Amino acid sequence: MAQSRRAVLASKRYSKKTKEQVAREIRWEYYKANRNRLIDDVVQYSEIILQMLLAGVEVEIAFLPYVKNVNVVSPQILPAHNSQHKAA
To answer: Does residue 26 fall inside a structural domain?
Structure first.
């Protein structure tokens, strides 16, 4: 016997994970796999990380500010490469 359209829609609604649930799982899996690389109080920033994931930021980028001893150099402070001024 075929299910009614309403029953099919209801089952899809409850079986489908929301975007937030998926983002929470991604955040948790990344945390578990990388907790030794992350700062001790990263948990305080979990909602910020979640919001970044929901906005489409990749998980590695979302966690980047909370990785221990990361030296990130801004491109604006790097010296410009100018081939005309090479030493002879």
So the answer is: yes
Task: Give the long-range contacts of residues 60-64, CB within 8 A, separation 24 or more.
Answer: 60/30, 62/27, 63/30, 63/31, 63/34, 63/38
Burial tier of 34 (Cβ tally within 10 Å: 0-12, 13-18, 19+): middle
Domain range for 52: 17-68
Residue 38 DSSP label: B
In this predicted model, what pLDDT tens digit does every residue of 63-77 receive, in sequence order?
999 999 866 655 555
How much of the chain exceeds pLDDT 70, in percent?
60
Number of domains the chain contains:
1
**Residue 18, both tokens:** 């929301």
In a domain, 38, yes or no: yes
Which string of b and e fits 51-64 if b means at least 16 CB within 10 Å?
ebbeeeeebeebbe
